[in-house]
Amino acid sequence: MNMRLIIGAVAGIAVLAGIAAWSLFSGDSRPALDPEQVEATMAEAESAYADTDYARVAEILTGLAEQGVPLAQFRLGLMYRVGQGVEADEDTAIEWLVRAMGQDFSPARAPLVEIYLERARSAETNAAGVPWYERAAALDEPDAQAVLGSYYLTGTDVTQDVARGIALLTAAAEAGDLRAQSNLGYVYTSGTGVAVNDAEAFRWYLAAAEGGLVRAQAAVGLFYETGRGTEVNLPEAIRWYLNANSADAPGTGARLGNLAINGVLEGRSSQEVTGWVADAARADVDGAVAWLEAAAETGDADVLNQLAEFYDTGEVLPQNSALALENYRRAAEAGSPQAQLAMARRYATGNGVTQDYVAAHVWANLAAAAGVPGAADERTVFAQFLSPEDLARAQAQATEWRAAHRDD
User: Fold this and answer.
1) What domain of life is recorded for the organism (predicted)?
2) Which tens digits make up the pLDDT trace of 28-39?
């Protein structure tokens, strides 16, 4: 922390001009101080600070703070927080900052909130952090309100109080907290403690989505796709799904796959669409596997490779090594770099085919040229098993394949 920010303007005329408007009484209601006396004493503190005599600064501020001067209480609290001129003591810092806040000295709010949140987040358990979140929330700190709102909504480490949870979330959401906005979207979607209100849910999800919260972007996509709380708008649904999917939001790939299956997703690459339909297949979306099988019949390399992977691993489709090999071969011939590497590995190990390091090198070479991670290293390994003549033959075959498929 910049120490000149702690004491800077201690005797500033602009600050002191407002002293007469503050309550200059201590907690025990001592008589008000003479503003001129306060100004003179503050000037003394500033002089001591310029001389780097921080202990003297603390001593002067202590005298004023004990007599109820909020500016002095504030500055002294900061000094105790960092241990300048006094031994660091955060509890004492809190005490002085609270006393300054008690006189409506608003600059004390920020360091108090910072301390409260630090203590809440560093607590050994969530429950131990709750009292500190409560203190920060009492100062209208959105971060603390959002956390506590979720706690009270779900009964996490507090006695469940849905109404209070919603009130806290609403306060944080209105202050712009994205998590609270998204959680309110859930509240109104599910009818947790309130009547189901899709329009209100959409409003809060959209606010969070526009702020960049990924899970809210996924929700907005679904609302636009289904017309829940808003008009159906498939271009907007796709836009929000794509935003969320780029951040790996769960479920968005399957939603995009579902749109592809229904023929409303255009202008995207085959690899992207295939991946999304595969996600839909994993999510057991009706028609996903049939879509892949139909696309495979057209010779689409990406789809063939995806079907090969499903048959190879037993994911989605029953494991079938023969069908996996067939689809890998077709995909590799159609130009799928991933399938080419898969074929290279099969030829190198003799998995379903006669072991052939020349063929393994050819396919690894093609995959490496396409930039498949690891393919170049595997090509180097395979080359070690080849004579100079066989290596030259493998390189020539790869060159011939690329020439034959240059326009594909």
Assistant:
1) Bacteria
2) 344 457 888 888
Show Cβ contacts of residue 334 under 8 Å, excluding neighbours closer than 6 positions. 299, 300, 301, 304, 408
Distance, C-alpha 251 to centroid of its chain: 16
Residue 278 contacts residue 306 (beta carbons within 8 Å): yes
pLDDT in tens, 22-72: 433 334 344 457 888 888 898 889 889 888 899 999 999 999 999 999 999
Q: Please choose, from the candidates 192, 259, 276, 175, the residue with its C-alpha nearest in 3D space to the C-alpha of residue 221.
A: 259
Structure tokens of 202?
């959409």
Write out the two tokens for 239. Answer: 């836009």
DSSP notation for 186-247: HHHHHTSSS---HHHHHHHHHHHHHTT-HHHHHHHHHHHHHTSSS---HHHHHHHHHHHHHT
Q: Can you give the residue ranges of every domain in the chain? A: 1-122, 337-408
pTM, entire model: 0.82
Average model confidence (pLDDT) across the chain: 91
